[in-house]
Amino acid sequence: MKKRILAGMLIFVMAFSLAACSGGGSTEKKDEGEKTEEGAPEQDVVKWNYGTSGNVLVTIANEKGYFEDEGISIEPVEANANADAMTLLSTGKVDVVSNAGTSNPLQQIASGIDISVFGGHMIEGCMPVVAKKGAEWNGIESFVGKKVAVNPSYFAFTGAVMDLGYENPLEVVEWEVYSDYNDALAAVVRGDVAYALMGTGQNLAVQEMAANGEIDIVSYQSEVMENYSCCRMVAQTKWINENPNTVKAVLRALLRAQSYYEANKEEATEEYVAAYMMDDEHYFVSVDPLKDGVVRAWDILDKTGYLGEDNQVKIEDHINTALYEEALAEAVEKYGEEAPEFYEEMEAFFAEHDK
Hints:
Elements: E1 45-49, H1 56-63, H2 66-69, E2 73-76, H3 82-90, E3 96-97, H4 103-110, E4 115-120, E5 122-125, E6 128-132, E7 147-149, H5 155-163, H6 169-172, E8 174-175, H7 181-190, E9 195-197, H8 203-211, E10 215-220, H9 221-224, E11 232-236, H10 237-242, H11 244-263, H12 271-277, E12 283-285, H13 291-303, H14 322-335, H15 340-353
Parallel strand pairs: 1-2, 1-3, 7-8, 7-9
Antiparallel strand pairs: 4-11, 5-12, 6-9, 6-10
Helix pairs in contact: 1-11, 11-14, 14-15
């Protein structure tokens, strides 16, 4: 049985626009002559892009005052797509991106942009695989020889096909790329494709269609590849190195938020959010950087050609686990009594996946 950190069974509302997170401080560093407490954040305000779907841990940390307790506030910066978010990051217009997946940041790193993974958001994002009603499903083997509405840069699927013994998954599956999940869903209904991957936000609609007998939910991305590393937290490597106390403040606040989230999901019942956040088998958030998952993703993307023809980058140089390890130890010391079992589980998870 899959080991889970999640302990609760209910829901916390995810705000899609966290305008309330905006802080009134300055994003500039404190003046050199200004005396600051040892270990205090180098930056008062962190500029953050969390996509169009929001970030439940950021929401909680803001609403519960955890960021304020750490001496920082969050300034949301919007972007219309993952690529736009990565452009904002590479140009220094945001400090942190947390919802742009894993393959997007890794492709940026391979192209020579110096960013690093330092934490996480979703490890599994509750992404259903759908097919016409009554379709056969024998695991990822069912993709072979079929037309599927899945972007092959989604390494969980190409990696799983390679695990079956197929050297080149791009040749044995006909991958169809749709820019919109609704278009992919329509393609399944029409019979243009055999299977389609849906986004986290499509869960309610997909569940309703399945209940009406229009389609079947045959699997989830997390069943194809466990702990596939849905979304990593990334920042410019220079920013991480120059602002270690700020980074650790962010991580400590998010660890408290994750602890609260796992114990208090009952605080909201919004149906759209409940459709995926109630699913403890397929939706899994964690602040942990998940080093082994990132390395696995890198290797799959490299083998399938998504990192370029002459990629010489060593991905381990772009995964910073040291600050998370320090932040986790500090959070245990400061907040461990709030949820001792949670912090023990986080320490065990780090030892398993990041050492």
